[in-house]
Design goal:
single chain; mainly alpha; 67% helix; globular; 306 residues; two-stranded parallel sheet
Length: 306
Amino acid sequence: MKKLEGIERLTFEKAATEQFIGKFGIRSVFNFLWAVGGWVTTIVLTVNETIPLVAGMGMSVVFIQACYMPMHESVHHTPSGGRKSYAWIDRCIGEITGLVLCESFRGHVTTHLLHHTHANGEQDPDVLNSAGTPIQIFGRVIAGATLYPLMPFIQIFPPLARVIPPAIRERFAERDRIRGPEVAKASRWIAIVHVTVLIAGTAAGFGTVVWLLWYVPAWIGRFWLSLVFGWLPHHPHEETGRYRDTRIFTFVGSTLLIRGHDYHLLHHLFARVPHYKLRLLWKSLGKHLDAQGARIEGRAATLISN
């Protein structure tokens, strides 16, 4: 297939994607319901000692990390299909899943759209979290999980910031600069909510629930999400072109494991297409993307060359 440019390229891509855009996201809503419902059920079963605590923690990790996909889809309005009358569904799903994931949904909307606009560039907020090696990402998650409950107290009593190593303070300052004051404010308020839940839950005798079935699993899940949605699709975080800032990278079982974002380049190109439609879209646009010089790696590269 020849390389397309200008209006011809835009017309071709629009024709290929329009069938996947604008429909009410029944599957996105279902993904939200089973992820949150599964986590709540896990808590009940663990508290009732129907399943052991270790199993409950593992299941909590699975369900909590699954909450990210409906939150992410809500940023791009795919649950509502982009219809203003259903926009409340996007907000509802986003706020609830953000609460579960120790994340401000309002803040995530801004940072995620910044990521799309400046992918791999100096203004990309995701680079601070997902560039580097998996070991480095693990260290950042440990630091985040440890310091997150302290942040509201540091806001009230700034001298407490001295307990944070200078290198981490500088990294947090850079993160806040890129994200902007509105995101920092939204994140601060949601952190206060999270810390209040941790303190109140512990004081009320639900320490096992709030710490071992929510907080710790949430940060383990965030580490996994950083790997498969941040590091893997963009590695090595060097190129910034339209077809090069992320990639198609597939392997056996990758679509199930990464829930369609093994075709992450397609998401960056056409963010309104739901994640569960990306594989179908690839079948229509694979040859076109190859002709455009897209990053196509792994099993997909082998298949498209045949």
